[in-house]
Design brief:
single chain, 6-stranded mixed β-sheet, alpha/beta, 8 strands, 28% helix
């Protein structure tokens, strides 16, 4: 049986991440370029078409090609986009979404079921064609993949920045192995524009 190995990395921090804003489809740059030390050097990186993923991939894997797929974008938060908990805490629809995120959709946003379907379809399309691949993607996308393959609840999974998640399976797409490894970085003194 063929073993599939997948590496998942969350993009570097954006200003919205620092400010704890809901950043879904807003195309915000990472705060600063870094140089990373990783135990792998893939030829190709897969990720979202948003610049924070592309910029992180360029920092972490400067010699690799990047293949962008818009299906790997974060959840579209609609009217909640770029707002904080403090901005929204008294909004009844926001409270309903927080309490029942799988049943309530942000106004003008994307339902959780649509998000799940597009992410998993993209992931399966890519991983079914090769035995090992690396992704630089969003926190919600990593959570969705890990929750599905580890058969755990979405909210039970945490997707940290500067962490390499490696999962593998044989045959059936049920994870048989998961490791988490910190990514060591050297921060440069310039900001990404």
């Amino acid at each position: 049986m063929v073993r599939t190995i997948v590496h998942l990395i969350r993009h570097e921090l954006t200003q919205a991440n620092i400010e704890r804003r809901y950043i879904g489809w807003t195309d915000q740059a990472i705060r600063q370029a870094v140089q990373a030390t990783l135990p792998l050097q893939p030829t190709v990186i897969y990720g979202s078409d948003l610049k924070r993923c592309q910029q992180t991939a360029a920092c972490y894997f400067p010699s690799s090609s990047f293949i962008a797929d818009e299906r790997l974008r974060e959840l579209h938060f609609g009217d909640f986009e770029m707002k904080t908990y403090e901005d929204l805490q008294h909004d009844a629809l926001y409270r309903a979404w927080i309490d029942e995120p799988f049943q309530v959709t942000p106004p003008n946003g994307e339902s959780f079921n649509v998000f799940k379907a597009r992410v998993l379809q993209a992931f399966e399309d890519i991983t079914s064609k090769q035995n090992e691949c690396t992704f630089v993607i969003h926190g919600g996308v990593i959570k969705m993949i890990l929750a599905t393959y580890l058969q755990q609840g979405f909210h039970d999974i945490h997707a940290k920045h500067r962490t390499l998640y490696t999962l593998s399976w044989e045959g059936e797409k049920s994870c048989i192995s998961l490791s988490e490894e910190p990514i060591m970085v050297n921060e440069n003194t310039f900001t990404i524009e």
